[in-house]
Amino acid sequence: MKYLYLFPLFLMTLGQAQEASDFMEEVDAIQKKYDTLWDASKETIVFTGSSSVRIWNDLQERFPDYQIVNTGFGGSQATDLLAYSDALVLRFKPRKVFIYEGDNDLSAKKKPRAIVKTLANIIARIREQNAAAEIVLIAAKPSIVRWQMKRKYKKLNRKLKRWSQKDSLIDFADVWKPMLEGRKINEELFIEDGLHMNGKGYDIWYEVLKPYVK
Q: Which of the chain's termini has less CB crowding within 10 Å, N or C?
């Protein structure tokens, strides 16, 4: 009976490992990229998370006075970032980490509480390496294709904000409100897929995140 009880747990763990392995090639490519670009002698700020970070191609140009490492990987969820935290975050010994996860998690029907728990595990790993590392949690953004889930997004963002208010080394960067027009989403901020942002969307993110970088 004991083994019958453990079998579902084994299947769940195996499934998570298989999902994480889907990103192995992309993670390897990110590591090879920064083998030549990253200067270990300089302080580093890591931006990581899902595709909204991954396709922000001019991050370094927007913050030229800082060494920015962009390890975003498309389609990722918080559990994926936890699985690859060594390669995508800890390797660079960052003094500050910007995290954007939760968007795909909510779409995959994960609960806000579970997302926050995984993010807490990620932050704990970062603090094992550097107890003074600063964390910036980027709010789950609104989007055209996921607008019907706005209540869940708002709930997650409220949890992230409350968390930041209890921890002096965690900040919450609210990109949700600036991407709205009144109570509706600003559709001019998105490319054709209705999920990812165009330059106007990233202009808003830059203005929101700039104070947290500096």
A: N
Owning domain of residue 72:
40-213
pLDDT averages per 10-residue partition of the chain, 214 residues: 41 44 90 95 97 97 97 96 97 98 97 98 97 98 97 98 97 98 96 97 98 95
Q: Which helix (H) or strand (E) holds 185?
A: strand 184-185
Among 9, 212, 176, residue whose Cα is nearest residue 103: 176
Cβ atoms 210, 61 nearer than 8 A: no
Q: How many domains are contained in the chain?
A: 1
Closest CA to 97 of 121, 54, 68: 68
CB-based contact 213:63 (threshold 8 Å): yes
Say if strands 180-181 and 184-185 run parallel, antiparallel, or are unpaired: antiparallel
CATH number at residue 180: 3.40.50.1110
| Domain-located, residue 22 | no
